[in-house]
Amino acid sequence: MSARVAGELADLPTASISDALDKLGLRGSMHGLSPLRPGQRACGPAYTVAYEPVDDQGGTVGDFLDDVPAGSVVFIDNAGRTDCTVWGGIMTQVAAHKHVAGTVINGVCRDVAVTTTTDYRIWSVGRFMRTGKDRVRVRAVQEPLLVDGVTIRPGDVVCADEDGVVVVPAGRADEVASIATEVERVEAAIVATVRDGATLREARSAHGYHSLQTPDRTASDTGETA
Question: Which segments show compositional bias classed as Polar residues (predicted)?
Answer without folding.
Answer: 211-226
